[in-house]
């Protein structure tokens, strides 16, 4: 969209209302710069909001992590129990 003198202008709108914000933003008013882009990262966020995505991205990795930690704890307990039985 272009405003006066053919310069780009942007219209903003909040998430919680249906109306656009009154002042239009010109190109010179934007001070942010893109430092990093990660293509398709938004798809992960979108998927995590769905039940199947939540299961795949949160539940499965958490289950694997807990399983591996329990394995390590049990191994350590067995090792300590073996030392105590030798005394």
UniProtKB/TrEMBL annotation:
Keyword entries, A-Z: Membrane, Transmembrane, Transmembrane helix
Superkingdom field: Bacteria
Membrane-spanning residues: 52-70
Sequence segments annotated as region (Disordered): 1-23
Bias (Basic and acidic residues) ranges: 10-23
Name of the protein in question: Type I signal peptidase
